[in-house]
Amino acid sequence: MTIEKALVVGTGLIGTSVALALREKGVAVFLSDVDTEAARLAQVLGAGREWAGEGVDLAVIAVPPHLVGDRLADLQKQGAARVYTDVASVKADPIADAERLGCDLASYVPGHPLAGRERSGPAAARAELFSGRPWALCPGPETDAEALRRVRELVSLCGATAVVVGAGEHDSAVALVSHAPHVVASAVAASLASGDDVALGLAGQGLRDVTRIAAGDPLLWRRILSGNTRPVAGVLERIAADLAAAASALRSGDLDEVTDLLRRGVDGHGRIPGQRGGSLPGRNPAGSPGR
Amino acid sequence: MTIEKALVVGTGLIGTSVALALREKGVAVFLSDVDTEAARLAQVLGAGREWAGEGVDLAVIAVPPHLVGDRLADLQKQGAARVYTDVASVKADPIADAERLGCDLASYVPGHPLAGRERSGPAAARAELFSGRPWALCPGPETDAEALRRVRELVSLCGATAVVVGAGEHDSAVALVSHAPHVVASAVAASLASGDDVALGLAGQGLRDVTRIAAGDPLLWRRILSGNTRPVAGVLERIAADLAAAASALRSGDLDEVTDLLRRGVDGHGRIPGQRGGSLPGRNPAGSPGR
């Protein structure tokens, strides 16, 4: 093992979960957060000790996307770690910030674990949050091979699977599979405002599943979306056009066009890895919302 | 118990599940389906015996919405049952059909169990499909009180909760909480066609939840939507407008408007009964799609 000491900067849901996962593997973890209350709570939860400037093998920067570059620059100035990574859900902007701030790009491996919960903060953290999940890594041409190897080890210690991908490609991908679906779930949930209690009382598991992620923190998601505006807008425009066309077809009684959308949905759903056309193990078997 | 003998007409997912639930409660169940293979499979699965015209206390008509009126008229002509109900996911059209065909509306209690799965057919049926779920009943001014009482007993035997609601109100409600969300899930799933395998490899639980119901049978859903076109179109238009506005706001960098949609989504999500702002018991704790 080459990661014996790690620093986690930012003790929110993701940072604290990384810290807990590393602690379980016997790594010495130091914690730092400008929110001293969050840092203290993470310590109490067993995520690690307060950081007092100790040098570490790896620093995990788990702060909002727009702060990653600044924090990386600070840490590198202090010589805090041999290797740095971050966990922000967009990658092109933080990398551009790091370049602009003159950071050492050889020791920085941009990363993004595809995991989360609707709840945020250290109290929601769990060591197994990343278990079996993809974890994107976006090394650039300057990235040191040894740095990448060490961050791959972090991913492995957290039980996740590393997926190496270009930063731009990553951002387009998460716009498609994560950011735009979040906005769509929010729009479906927002539409419920027009329903009365009887209508809401007829809600089934399907509606609960479609809207579950809409419970996420709006300010956190604002930050995520603000770092990925154009790719997300592109996906939303296509979905909005499909829905407007479906509505228009329904009004005119042209069910063929709607059926085509439903068929394309079945095909697209089948492209998600691990789908088997049925319920996941341990999930509620009562599935579709209507019948 | 007043339901000692029941007839289930249509041995698909819902009909066979009703039959299995009634069998578990000791009700004698007869089965009928124009698809003799489906009927035989339901019998083999223990859902009941083949119907040979025996008179029953209650007939459950579990056929597609556009066939409910015809089937009701046939059964009433034969004097098959004392009370009739159906399970179609729209209510105004089947009731209008029944009126047009001169059916006896006193003995007919239109119904709709809010339960289902992505899979269809008798092999997917289970006795507990309706357990804890709402089951809409739409009696009209002509409906006999004793008929309603008997169908309430059916709902209770299936472990569901009866919700009495007007037919038009029901159809608007399910457009909002079931039919429109299904089309939206299909549109999100359809958008995945533009993603490459790397993008799809970054899919998390959030995307799986948002798109799960999109795996439903397109032809079944075409029939459902064709009986509820205007209410569904109205909901889809509002959602499409919200998404188009969000895309436009993202392109112009106006994150306030997007944040407002996210906030409305949190509020709307909170209106769904039984939501507690977190994961449901036994569900994957790793929730949000992105971080």
How many structural domains in the coordinates of chain A? 2
Order of helices and strands of chain A: EHEHEEHEHEEEHEHHHHHH
Oligomer: homodimer
What is the helix tally of chain A? 11
CA-CA gap between termini of chain A: 52 Å
Q: Give the overall shape of chain A.
A: elongated
Mean pLDDT of chain A: 92
- In which order are the strands of the major sheet of chain A placed? 3-2-1-4-5-6
DSSP E strands of chain A, number: 9
Query: Most extensive chain contact?
Result: A-B, 127 and 128 residues
Percent of residues of chain A in helical segments? 40-55%
Quick one: biggest sheet of chain A?
A: 6 strands, parallel
Q: Find the CATH topology of the largest domain in chain A.
A: Rossmann fold
Q: How would you name the CATH homologous superfamily of the largest domain in chain A?
A: NAD(P)-binding Rossmann-like Domain
Unreliable spans of chain A are 276-291
Query: How does CATH name the architecture of the largest domain in chain A?
Result: 3-Layer(aba) Sandwich
Radius of gyration of chain A: 21 Å
Region (Disordered) (chains A, B): 266-291
Family (chains A, B): Belongs to the prephenate/arogenate dehydrogenase family.
Keywords (chains A, B): Oxidoreductase
InterPro entries (chains A, B): 6-PGluconate_DH-like_C_sf, NAD(P)-bd_dom_sf, PDH_C, PDH_N, Preph/Arog_dehydrog, Prephen_DH
Description:
Two copies of one chain form a homodimer. The radius of gyration of chain A is 21 Å and the shape is elongated. Chain A is an alpha/beta fold and 291 residues long. The first copy, chain A, is 48% helix and 13% strand. Chain A has two domains: 5-165, Rossmann fold (3-Layer(aba) Sandwich); 170-270, Orthogonal Bundle (6-phosphogluconate dehydrogenase C-terminal fold). In chain A, helix 4 links the parallel strand 5 (81-86) and strand 6 (108-109). Chains A and B meet through helix 6, helix 7, helix 8, helix 9 and helix 10 of A and helix 6, helix 7, helix 8, helix 9 and helix 10 of B.
